[in-house]
Amino acid sequence: MPPAIHPVDLIEILRQHRLTPAIVFLTSRRACDEAIDTFAHSSARMSSQRSEAIREFLEKFTKDFPSITHHPLIPVVQEFGVAAHHAGHLPSWKIAIEELMRQGLLDAVFATTTLAAGVDFPARTVVITQSSVRKSQDFTDLTNSEIQQLAGRGGRRGKDLVGVVVITPSPYIDLHILGKGLTGYPEPIDSQFVVSYPMVLNLLKAHSLDQIEGLLAKSFAQFQLNQRSGIHQDHLDQIKEQLMPYGPRECADWITQWKGFDLARRRKAHRHPIVTNDTPFLTACLPFLTPGRLIGLPKGPAIILRQYRSRGTFAPMLSVIRAKGTLGECPAHSVTQVYDRVFEFQPSRTIPWCQPQVLSQLKKELSQLPTRLPTVPILPEIQETDDPLLAEILTEEFPCPTCPSHSACKKDFPLASKLRQKSQQLTKTIQALRDGLWHRFQQKADVLHKFGYITASSQLTADGEWARLIRINHSLLITELIRMDAFSGIAPGLLAGIMASISHDDDRPGSYMRLPSGLATMLTQVRAVADSLSPYEPPPLLRSDVAALVESWIGNPQLTWASLVRSTSMAEGDVYRLLARTLEFLSQIYGLKITHPGLADTAHSAMVTMRREVLQELP
Amino acid sequence: MHFDDLKHELQSLPVKYLHHMARGRIHRHFRLGKHRLVEIMLAFPPDQILAIETELQQILTTRQERLAAQEARAAARPQKPASPFQSKNRQMKGKPNFDHSQPSITLQEILKGIGVPEPQPFVPDPWQTEAVEHLAHSDVIVSAPTGSGKTYVAIQAIKQAMTLNQTVIYTSPLKALSNTKFMEFSQLFGPDQVGILTGDRRDNAQAPLLVMTTEILRNLFYDAASGEIDLRLHTLGLVILDESQYLADPERGVVWEETIILCPSQARLLLLSASIGNPQDLAEWLQAIRPIPCHLIRHAKRSVPLRGLYLHPTGQLVPLLKNQDILQGKGYTFHPDTRQLFTEYEIKPFR
Question: Can you tell me the ipTM of this complex?
């Protein structure tokens, strides 16, 4: 099974079932052109009357639009009644195909999905071969709206009883995306509001800052942001309601208070990873409770044989010999006195913890003790809190430990603090949504102030007055170049070339032409300026091949369209669009004729030279 | 419980409960659909059926309680005022339950309808006349699919405004479209009545009907605001923005917004857009920022019905969907032939 149906077979099947005229959407321009090429050797000819009708129409049409007289696809169109229609063709060719289609002379048009946008171009049948389109670098699925735009071409009002969508698989297809797209609802649209430099200048020219804030608030962008913040607001209200029972207690803001307390406790715990319940007094005692030390216990004096920690609770314990000569175990906290007397002996590791003869000697010593003995002065160390936060919070006045609502706070704190955190976040988000647009405006205004287009009081300066007339992409770059006098005494061709490379934002690869040296130095200069402006405005691609192409068209008025197109690998339609866009940029510069008469004249002469042959042909 | 009752109860239950009951009873139940599950359950021996019945009773009671609680909560929640632009027919969403006993459509049935209709006198649709009528006292947004006759609305609106000696501006997103509309209008209203302004063309700029690209109109509004009147804005009675779904264009959408914001309030706005998902948002927005009320007309029905076919690379032509016409918002079920052929294609596309 072939990966996709052969174009000739496709058309024959459509003809057989009376499904023509049809529009066939293919993935790429190349696929469209190749599909047409396959017809050249096929036998899928049309009837001779219709061929004749097409020939007559094209003859008449080429009188008005001579640029397509020698179009390479004309023989195929006449003989087979199929044509390609995509952005790589000249507008005049596209108009011819659309007109032929409207008159019902063609059987099929192979087109890319860009056709669907905007051109009124219906047919009986629409053939879809893909469910994704190439956008910038990778393929993305078609949206419901896009699929409906494609399918919407099927079925002509008054000419067809029904329209038909034919889906034929190719390796780029997912049937369910198409099924969903054909029967689903179109996607909601979102505002794409961006604040641009010319917008700021033009608004400031006519309005005060307050009025502008009002105008921005009227945008669809703000409307949608408000809708979103409304949802957040509802959420916030809910959370506030949930926070109600956690209102003020003993202290007005108990959550913050407890948070500090909690934090301090946690930090303290963190500093002593082994938790012992030793009191400060006991901790101070422990170093003295060594084997041989004489101590006082509630039942009388005793001598320590060893010190150890109990297995379970890790409490300090002592093995002692008492006055009666018995061995015993007692917890260290039951020690009442620590006397200043130590009996030296060699401790051993097994019971009775020393040599048996030492044991009887110690018993003897214990029975001979004097009634009064000097004690060791033990000063319990006060816990040093070197953490300033701890010292600050855990003072005597800190209310939490002794507060009557201590236990309630402790219980509620985790939930309450989470809720409060969320409510604070939401408040911030809502604020950001409400003020975002205005902030973006102010950012742009600050940049313009920095470059001297507006004064500190948001009035337009002399430069700002003319700069606001440049209302195109990359306006900051162009106005900066004009202010730098980069274009003084420039040749019209050079100016047009620079404008072309600024305006062209398509990264479809094109061939490289030999760059005139003047253009090369100029482009380097422009690129340096664009790079220095990159924090404020994304720099254009500044392709040198398109600049050279436009420069040669204007610099050499004898150059014909055919030889211009032959000198580049760009498609004819792309060259046309490049020139048309350059024309638009130049006409913006021509608009500065009051303040920059010299530059405007240059732009005007470039425009005049540019409008010849194909560019003159269309209105 | 009677056998049929049980069957009905099981079928009306969401499938997750069926899976719940099938656990431990049916091997690999998670691979099965609802119908198959019910079928297998009903074929159980009587003692198993009894167990299922008791479980079903339990599920039903808990479910009823849950639903009741949900309803109570929904009733307690404060109701938002419904937007006047919300349409009613959007409520019905999701797949309809196709009657599986009904046979799928055949290719002959689909192909039978194809042909040329009898020539009929043109009668405007009710929504078209409604749009023109409302334009007398409010802004109008028309959201309708391609080729359903939005241009007719525009032309009628232009005629209506021109009889009142008002200036009309018609904008389109592309220069090529502006040119075709200029020619079309010139034939309709006479060449001296129509002017065109694009980036590099300026013909008959004093005419009562001006065709231009939206960028040019935005620039005109800028200049008018700063006092350099270039246009008779005080006589401006109607602004038509064609293809206004361009509002969502990542690069140029902002121009449409600016144009609408800066549009003088005495002029009526007529927004013509392809089908979009949220025209009611647009309408609410216009209502909020402009002193005139706004009327939304959404027309989802195509004037020519659309049918689907699937063409296999081998040349086999089969219906795409189980039902005849492609209808919006009703879900879809592929025709069994399409499903089979496409599965085959996906498994071995290259051979």
Answer: 0.74
